[in-house]
Structures are given as C-alpha cells and as structure tokens.
Amino acid sequence: QIMKQVPARFDLKTSHIPTYSAEKLSSMKDADWNDFLQRVCSVLDSTEKNTGTTRSKLNLLLYLCAVAVHKEIASRLISSQLFPILIQQLRAAANWDIRAKVARVIGLLALHTTELKENVPVSEAIILLTEIIRENFRNSKLKHYLLPALGELLYLIASEEEKRGHSRESWVVPSATYTVLMRCLREG
C-alpha cells in the first residue's frame, strides 16, 4: 500500500534560523549561502537532548523538505556539508520522528537533484538505510518512511551513471540493499 506524503509545513515563528524562500536561497552569494548552511548544520548537529531542541530540529527538517523540492537548491544542498550531517542524524538520532524527517529530506534531495558530484557519500546513505530497514524489518511504519529515500537514492545513482556512461566506485550499491528491497517487495 502506497500512502501519499502530506506536504511539509514548518513554523516560521519557532525557527532558529532565517527561513528564506527557495528564490532567495538560489540568489544568495557564496558567503551568505555558507553562513546559512553553517547555521542549519549547527542546529542539526546539536547534541542537547531536550524537547525544545527536538522541536527545533523537526521544524528545520520540515523547512528543508519545503526548499528541497527546488532543483537548484536540492543540488546545492546534497553537495554541501549538510548531506553527511543528515546521514549522521539518520544513524544517531534517538527520536524516530527526526529519523523519519531526515529520510524524507534525503529522498527529496535525491529526487530533485540535477547533478550529483562524485564526492557525495550516497553509498554511505544507502548502506545506512539498508541496515536500519533490515534491523527493523517488521516495523512497517518505519519502512514507509525509509524505503522512498532508499529508492530515490538508487534511482539517482542509476540515472547519473546512465548520463555519464559509466559507473563510479564511490557510488557502489551493496548486494544487501537489493536483497532487502526484494524482501520488502515480497513480504510487504
């Protein structure tokens, strides 16, 4: 059963960073863009464990979902220092809501990216998503959040390799990923 994702809605008033429009983000000079990215990364990378921090991270992830649907922004974000921090949050976040939103951001970035640079750790994200799905295989709600991101990353790699005419060693997809996907398709 495929369920449609509800649109991401973030709260402007509680945001700890300026919530620029996609148009404003795409017209930013490099220094302003780097400052913005630094602020986003510091909020996500915060190790405080309280309700306010969790709410701030969730709100920021919802904002990232909103701007990640713009091709230029998605391409810039996936190639930035944000992507490794998203992977780290997917691995380490104690809150499953945060993990689900991180997976959604990753999936949206993969879906809307027009160019994937070779240094983007896409394989690391695929391996991590595969491990989490395998460890929580009976949790259908969790698979509902993680499988779309995994599928979008696989499609992104395949389309980039097709565009370039050859595969990249840095984008290796482990056979366990295909095994997990086939098992999900078979068993639901």
What does this structure look like?
- There is one protein chain.
- The protein is mostly helical and 188 residues long.
- It has a single domain, classed as Leucine-rich Repeat Variant.
- The chain has nine helices and no strands.
- The chain has helices spanning 22-26, 30-45, 51-67, 71-78, 82-92, 96-112, 122-135, 140-164, 175-187.
- The longest helix is centred in the C-terminal third of the chain and has 25 residues, at 140-164.
- The protein is globular.
- The mean pLDDT is 86.
- Keywords: Kinase, Transferase.
Q: What is the H/E string?
A: HHHHHHHHH
Q: Helix segment count?
A: 9
Query: Structural class, from secondary structure content?
Result: mainly alpha
The geometry reads as globular
State the separation between the terminal residues, measured CA to CA.
8 Å
| Largest beta-sheet characterization | none
How many domain regions? 1
Average pLDDT confidence is 86
Helix content: 55-70%
InterPro entries: ARM-like, ARM-type_fold, ULK4
GO molecular function: kinase activity
Protein name: ULK4 kinase
Keywords: Kinase, Transferase
